[in-house]
Amino acid sequence: MKSLHTKPENWITALVVILLLTASQVVIAKSAAGALKKMDRNGDGRLSYDEWRKKRIFKRIDLNGDTFLDVSELKRFFGEPLEGDLAQVLPDSKTISAIRRSKFDDPQDLKDKGLVPTGLYPVWPDGIGCRGIDETYAMDYSHKRPKEAYHGGIDLPAPFGTPVLAVMDGEVVALYDAADSNPRGVEVVIRHLPEQSGLPLYLYSRYTHFDRLPELVIGQSVRMGDILGETGNSGVLGCELKGKPCWGRTRRPALHFDILYSDRPEYYDTGSVLIPVNGNWMDPNALYRNSMPVDTESMKALPASEKAVSIAYKQTDGGVFPADSKAIWPYACWKK
Question: For the chain, which domains are there?
């Protein structure tokens, strides 16, 4: 057999070619467009877990938890500038995990960000009827979910069609029509500035389970007491999340209501959940104390005598009580 020999200058040429090819592959692997070109085997413009090569960090990059990496998520990972609606500040990984709450996020992040029981509960004046809470803040929801989980807010049952009210002046910043794909169903998110709430924080009130998407638009201003929509029961059930038969079960009509807060104005919209930069969970009852602090640890530490919170409300005849309130209950109350 004839042996192969290469002249020294040919070896140098070959080495240069190899280095150039390697360099081009590195460039490809270090840009969003390059990653898509190199790994997107089915050509759908996004990367699945199977297509993405660095499995260990996939969950960290998948901001919206949909088990795919889209171009905006890839650009953030590679540190590339985003344009238009994508050019948002990115929350830290713990905040994303705590508020996104996807199946692979760490439940400890929820607790670290304030999703633990406080013992607060609402009270109203004698002679006034209001819709109360049947599932409380941070109650253990693990029996309803495929993993350890806690209730991110409060549930207020009401008949179908009962008007849901904006609890404060604010701006609509997110609308999600996820009736058949998310436990929260159809959702409205309103952002409240410090001057609107009277607190030195940026607040986000979230209202879920509408039967249909309310006739609101992003950027629309709302006033305290405005009707956002009507009570419904949209959203995926726990049995569906677990992949088990639901045997005809349906969600009762109710409003799921929660509050997020931050000391910073920026937020990030994943397309399925809005995440404030440096965001935290707040027991909604704490909002009606009308003073700082509002964080969970401080609320937990209150003496038993201060756990009852007097709730401001709008009456069905239109009046607000107390008249100077900046935040009211999300349902109208009535005289008994």
Answer: 24-86 (1.10.238.10), 93-335 (2.70.70.10)
